[in-house]
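Lecture notes, unit on binding sites. The following record was shown on slide 14. It pairs a sequence with flavin-adenine dinucleotide.
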Amino acid sequence: MAYPYKKMTDEDFAYIRSVTAGDRVILGDDIPYEYYHDEMPEYGIYRPDLYVEVLNKEEISAIMKYAYQENIPVTCRGAGTGLAGGATCKYGGIMLSVMRMNRIFPVDHKNQTITAEPGALLLDIQAAASAEGLFYPPDPGEKTASIGGNVITNAGGMKAVRYGLTRDFVRCIEAVMPDGSIMQFSSNVVKNTTGYAIKDLIIGSEGTLCILTQVTLKLIPQPTCSCTLVMPFKSLEECADMVPKVLELPFVPTAIEFLERELIDIVERNLHKMFPVKEGNAALIVMYDASSKMELDAAVSMAAEAALANGAIDCAIADTAERAGSVWAVRGAILEGMKADSVSQEECDVVVPRSEIAEYVKQAKKIASHYGLRVEPCGHCGDGNIHTELLRGADQTDEEWKSATHAALTELYALSKKLGGQMSGEHGTGNGRLDFLKEFVGDRMIELYKSVKLAFDDKLILNPGKMVEFN
Ligand SMILES: Cc1cc2nc3c(=O)[nH]c(=O)nc-3n(C[C@H](O)[C@H](O)[C@H](O)COP(=O)(O)OP(=O)(O)OC[C@H]3O[C@@H](n4cnc5c(N)ncnc54)[C@H](O)[C@@H]3O)c2cc1C
């Protein structure tokens, strides 16, 4: 094993320039501060020794071969929108950005797939599929994330309730290994039982096993119509109680999200995005896609009836793109709103069985208030992935905030485990949740994680100190 790493020298810098280009390499203090952290600076601020923007897999391969030989850590960077402190150089070394590798190849209609380089943006993949009458359903909140980042973090998002996660849409992957070799994982086939399912292990590996250089994604026919319903309730707990009732209906919803009024106020106040429904202390947002108007109308009227029968104050139907857009714009702006409204935030991203959502929400609020923390549970309640946002008040000292969040998170993760849940539903482990992982999964599981890491990266040079720590 390779800790401590080599401190990079002028000779190393010259080599990286020689296999890329001088104007795509930045050194030391000249590296912009934004590359010291991802969307959660709270999870660590680390300066890389060298930042390089690569153009193709051959450059990545040359860099990795050299780093492997010289024992230099390398961290791959996508768009830097991660919420786990993943795309940071915890042990210095090379930050390798793939954002210039952003080609999207023509849609393969016969296989209904699209192939892209890792730096292509999610929104551009969605648009390219749509332009050909097809649909790429994964819909994480941040559309300017890279597709490589989405795959390697197995991004979830709003539409997971109906369509599943990024993993469910990955046909095959091309990647550069830590020793520089270039490998293919699966091919453009619908099923595959050849050997271990390593492609699925790479998806969600958070840049710790290999560097993704190309991905082929499954597409499906576009739904022809969709509708969003807003069900205001007296409380978030009542919204949570409504979730299983929506899921029992004979139509599969595309998305089910919930928001408390306080959070809506935060977005309205700070970002001036107005939520169209004013009633209630909390709102359940339910979306349906369908392939015919008749199917959509049936789904919408059943859901509206169920909502009113189960305590909803009203059921607003946003059946035009404009009205639906104003609902989803507020939902999509939560993180930005919270950032504007608090000194800092802690992103707790547990996922619990759907049957336990209401219980989790009730207990989570008690835990947070016991530690004097402002808490906003929100998000993907349709799949049990409750973003339990802890917000720091202006009067809290660093020490108070740190110890209160640590204590609250310890209890929130224990609660999730007790309810049969997991520590993270989609944001991942990265650097930010590492402290809690061992307690959650146990020693034997950590040993397995270490064996997996070593099987790919025996010198521990790829994104070290994330997902699993060897120190
Ligand atoms: C407003 C907002 C909303 C969000 N909503 C969601 C949501 O609904 N669901 C969800 O799951 N996430 C969400 N996220 C988190 C984030 O957008 C996703 O994790 C996204 O997949 C990260 O992609 P990225 O390109 O920004 O990756 P980065 O942040 O650059 O990197 C993330 C990790 O992937 C690794 N990595 C990146 N590219 C590669 C590659 N080509 N090869 C190997 N490793 C690589 C990095 O080393 C790092 O460990 C949200 C973030 C924001 C800011």
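Take-home: The longest helix spans residues 398-418.
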